[in-house]
Amino acid sequence: MGSQSRRRWSPGWIVFTIVLVLIAVPVSVVGYNTLTAGAHEEEHTVSPAYFADVSALPVAPPAPAVQPGGSSGAWRIDCGRDEEGRHNSDNVVISPGVAGGAHHLHDYVGNDSTTAFSTDASLAAAGTTCQAGDKSTYYWPVLRLPRGDARQTVFGRILVPDSVLIEYQGSPVTNVVPMPRFLRANTGNPHGYTQGGVGTDHVQWTCSGSRDHVGRQYPRCPAGQQVVRLFDFPSCWNGRTTDSANHKSHLVFPAPNGACQAGTFAVPRLHLEISYTVPAGAEYAIDSFPEELNNPVSDHADFIDVMPDALMARVVDCVNSGKHCSA
Q: What is the DSSP secondary structure assignment for residue 304, as one 8-state letter?
């Protein structure tokens, strides 16, 4: 009995047991991209069909004309560009409480504590990279360069944005009302490719010097121009809740003329522009769910308003007065 016990707990047995435990541990929050990337690399490459010369992208439609009573102002805030490299594969807006639920990495600016398990209280108590005390959280999938081998797979270096523009805009048909604190919002569809493009109309791509052309393909930009991702968020609030069962119906997009549907109220429209320097000819791509094959039509972004009420009041006053302000 004694010799059997000594063999069972010898150093060799201990190492073997530790290995078994490590194999059994589920992939962590960032584990998909670190532990399974090698297998995923063998499955697909960045398709040439995902790319187009920026001049071949559709001409950008004109913005709706501002009508009498509309709000033509805009308010900008600097929250940095995630130069700290704060990433995780959670999505607290779409999959609250699910660690690693996105299966791809996000860039974060603003609130410095955002995870799948964040609560209103934890977000309100956290620090922020934004000016003026804005503790809101803003996030989107990282953009990557491939490793540079013959397969041109996307699991390579994460590109740090050159700039992140965060702007709150008005409504062309009415004044806006304040967003309620802790309002959740998202734009785009992380399953846009497998769902045939549903819900992808408000996420676009362009180049910094070719803004008259936008589209849903990765743009090939002329020398000296940056690749730019454009995100427009819904801005018609139901006036009652900060979230909904599908995480969408409480905040919806206006009609093409900018008017909100009956029973909803215009709040400041969040607009993001994320700009990158991409090497000429590089096969860059967003992180995505595996089945989305890194298709640009699956791009998306998410947001939680954690502005103090006084700061939101400043935003609303600026937008409704037709001014262009910054924090």
A: E
Quickly tell me which residue has 């037709």 as its tokens. Answer: 322
Entry pTM: 0.85
Q: Are 102 and 190 in contact (CB under 8 A)?
A: yes
Q: Could you tell me which residues are beta bridge partners of residue 252?
A: 236
Q: Per the structure block, which two tokens stand in for 125?
A: 């108590």
* Per-residue confidence (pLDDT) for residue 140, from 0 to 100: 98
C-alpha–C-alpha distance, residues 211 and 196, integer Å: 26
Neighbours of 174 (CB within 10 A): 18
The runs of H, that is alpha helices, within the chain are 2-8, 11-24, 31-35, 37-41, 120-125, 309-320
Give the mean model confidence (pLDDT) for residues 257-275.
97
Count the residues in the chain.
Answer: 327
DSSP assignment string, 170-190? --SSS---PPPTT-EEEEE-T
- Percent of the chain surpassing pLDDT 70: 83
> Going by C-beta distance under 8 Å and a sequence separation of 6 or more, which residues neighbour residue 66?
72, 170, 172
Neighbours of 2 (CB within 10 A): 6
